[in-house]
Amino acid sequence: MKIVEIEEDRIDEKHDRACHYLERFVCWMLITVAVAVCLTLVWETRETMHLHNKRLEQDLSMQAAFQHPRSRPEYFMP
Question: Which pTM was predicted?
């Protein structure tokens, strides 16, 4: 009887160990996926803001060019 109990305990330990490794693997996969999603969102936000900043810079430079033209023809009034 004692031998059977010891073997059952060993089976339970192996099962528990397998479940423990599986649980750790799933947790690390979830953490990895969460980090990857966060990094992707940060990268996309950075790129989008970079494009918006370029567009704003171009709009402002065009507004400044229209408001203050550099080459004005000089007229001579005698």
Answer: 0.52
